[in-house]
């Protein structure tokens, strides 16, 4: 198994256009239309307090994570996606750890995310990384799909 390479997508990235196209294609494949950022992905990335890390194996996209930090008080993981044929290989965990580290360097106090309670693999990963369930938000994704709001507190001594 090849070792994944984690890259940060920035405005100056040489492969930005190609990578955004690949990520949008993955976004459309994995998320229902009402949960997808495919239409506004590039616009989201242009925001000042938004970051995107992606994982490559053999030069091919394996997954990505998008996060934002509206203030120094908190940041949010807004998307985490891994290609179906790359799952259960550590890409999600590697991307999460990289995003957590980026937030730590920005002196963020709390990192939050939302997850569907039925996504047991995702829940297990977030708990493994130290996230705790804050509360259940009913009808978060749709009228019959709820979400746990989870958080990770940072000790920025």
UniProtKB/TrEMBL annotation:
Coiled coil: none annotated. GO terms for molecular function: acyltransferase activity, transferring groups other than amino-acyl groups. Transmembrane segments: none annotated. SUPFAM superfamilies: Acyl-CoA N-acyltransferases (Nat). CDD domains: NAT_SF (cd04301). Residues 1-155 form the N-acetyltransferase domain. PROSITE patterns: GNAT. Pfam families: Acetyltransf_1. This is N-acetyltransferase domain-containing protein. It comes from Protea cynaroides.
């Amino acid at each position: 198994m090849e070792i994944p390479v984690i890259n940060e997508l920035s405005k100056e990235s040489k492969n930005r256009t190609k990578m955004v196209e690949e990520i949008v294609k993955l976004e459309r494949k994995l998320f229902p239309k009402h949960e997808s950022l495919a239409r506004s992905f590039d616009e989201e990335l242009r925001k000042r307090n938004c970051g995107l890390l992606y994982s490559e194996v053999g030069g091919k996209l394996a997954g990505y994570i998008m996060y934002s930090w509206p203030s120094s008080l908190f940041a949010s993981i807004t998307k985490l996606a891994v290609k179906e044929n790359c799952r259960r290989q550590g890409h999600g965990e590697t991307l999460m750890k990289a995003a957590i580290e980026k937030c730590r360097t920005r002196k963020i106090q709390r990192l939050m995310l939302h997850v569907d309670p039925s996504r047991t693999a995702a829940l297990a990963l977030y708990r493994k990384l130290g996230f705790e369930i804050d509360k259940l938000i009913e009808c978060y994704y749709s009228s019959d799909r709820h979400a746990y709001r989870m958080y990770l507190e940072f000790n920025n001594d």
